[in-house]
Amino acid sequence: MASLIPLLTELEKDHISERQPLPEKYLGLSDAEMEARIAAARASLGSRLVILGHHYQRDEVIRFADYTGDSFKLASQVANRPEADYIVFCGVHFMAESADVLCAPHQQVILPDLAAGCSMADMAEPDQLETCWEELALMGVPGVIPVTYINSAASIKAFVGERGGTVCTSSNAAATLKWAFEQGEKILFLPDQHLGRNTAYKMGIPLDEMVVWDPHEIFGGVELEALKRARMILWKGHCSVHVRFSAAQIASVRTQHPGVRVIVHPEVPWDVVQAADDSGSTEYIIKTVKNSPVGSVWAVGTEVHLVNRLAQEVAPDRTVVSLDRFGCLCSTMFRVSPNHLLWILEELVEGRVHNRIVVPDDRKHWTKVALDRMLSIR
User: Fold this and answer.
1) What is the mean pLDDT of residues 90-111?
2) What whole-number distance in Å separates Cα of residue 330 and Cα of residue 2?
């Protein structure tokens, strides 16, 4: 399971002086009291407030969301609520950053707990990417187009946008890679090596035309000849939740549930995708299971809160189990609690804003270029 004390992201370091502990009076409240007080605060704020909830959020939080979805879908919803002054993003840092880049000047994006980061995003630091880019040039590797997964800091998106690259989500990764290959000979894909590998392989690119760039090694730890052959340069990063899934788990669940269909997120390792029946983004997984025949049996390889919601709410007439019998929890997403949400909302009612996420203007421009470029890809 991912560490319960993740490394601080660059954005968290920027805001660490602003972070404050949850006031003691918000601890130990009953569910009923929190529900009533959150409802009262929402009613008081009215159309000035919009709450966004990521699929991986705990049920006690996502029940209060005006919109639910994956990271970019939620950030995109900002445009649908121009009247809102406050955008409370129940997710993690990089998601709130994207919302701040895309929102109107009068809107303020708020993260209920600034400790809600992302271990994958932490695996790509701006100085590491600068070094990688310089070393690729020194090695004489031409035609490299940078593509970053949306699960990355705004500083990474800005770097990519300024150098002719773009952002992708798990749902449009294939279309994005196709676009990038039309722009150059090779793709530098970061920070999740597994999404890059699985997407490229599905597109017909063999594994021997992919290399892994380790930012902690000189020249990425990659031999020049291998780099010249490669079409995909995969950053050595991963999702701490999705790498817990294994092909052995798939073999086990097939024994336990004869006839089961296995569907996994493309952030899982390559051999897991090969052993599964299907793979796709969070939205794809939801749609596939929801539209499956009543009575069908599914084992799902993604974050456990989404799996449980599929079983209980989205597809109750199907059998839906987690591929990992212990359940894979995104511990950083779990930091956002109903207690934090209540505190944030009641402070907004009093005119006090805490935990605002602000992307600096210089970084915001190129981040928006990268995000807009992604939106233009079909």
Assistant:
1) 92
2) 7
State the amino acid at position 243 in one-letter form: V
What percentage of the chain reaches a pLDDT higher than 90?
71
Averaged pLDDT for residues 150-159: 94
- The band of 20, judged by pLDDT with boundaries at 50, 70 and 90, is low
Check if the beta carbon of residue 50 is closer than 8 Å to that of residue 82. no
How many residues are recorded in the chain? 378
Closest CA to 284 of 152, 148, 169: 169
Cβ–Cβ under 8 Å, residues 3 and 239: no
Q: Which amino acid is at 364?
A: K
- Do the domains 242-322 and 10-118+332-359 match in fold? yes
The mean per-residue pLDDT over the stretch 10-36 comes to 73
Q: CA-CA distance, 312 to 362, in Å (whole number)? A: 44
| Topology classification of domain 10-118+332-359 | Rossmann fold (3.40.50)
* Number of neighbouring beta carbons within 10 Å of residue 303: 25
CATH architecture of structural domain 124-237: 3-Layer(aba) Sandwich (3.40)
What stretches of the chain adopt beta strand conformation (E)? 49-54, 67-69, 86-90, 108-110, 144-149, 166-168, 186-190, 210-213, 232-235, 261-264, 278-279, 297-301, 319-322, 356-357
pLDDT at 223 over 60: yes
CB-based contact 265:195 (threshold 8 Å):
no
Residue 227: what residue type?
L
Distance CA 274, CA 328 (A): 20
